[in-house]
Amino acid sequence: MSRKNFVVVEIFSILITLLFVYTATSKILDFKGFVGAMNNQPMDNRWTPLLVILIPAAEYIASILLFFRPTRKFAFLMSTIMMFVFTVYVGVILSKAVYSRVPCSCGGVFPQIGWGPHLFINIAFTAISFWGYVLCKKLKHDDNEDNTILVSVKEKYSI
Fold first, then answer.
1. What range(s) does the Methylamine utilisation protein MauE domain occupy (predicted)?
2. Helices (H), the chain
């Protein structure tokens, strides 16, 4: 992997980590508000107890995994999936195709913005996560090539 791609992966890791740590911490610090916001969503409230634990936990786990190079590719994949799901959900809310009402986004992580800007932020972070995953796959491929060359040299010259 080129130095440029390595730097891009590092920057993407930092950006996603900052987003997830901020969002998870916001949810935990205002847990009552988070539960209320989840109950305000146009879905069955029986999911709320599971989601209010699962979402921040997944965000923290992805953030931790992004710190370590051996787990970074998996963390980018995990982040891509989470951001894709969040993005699809916001898109469904905005389309009113499934739910007849658009709930207030005031209980969300960015309470000052509406669902439209939220959708664009999610799309951007989904793209960043996916691009990070692709670059990590490339890095892993490059590492395997380097290791293959080193093994061949060691075998050829009995090092």
1. 8-134
2. 3-29, 31-40, 48-67, 69-95, 115-157
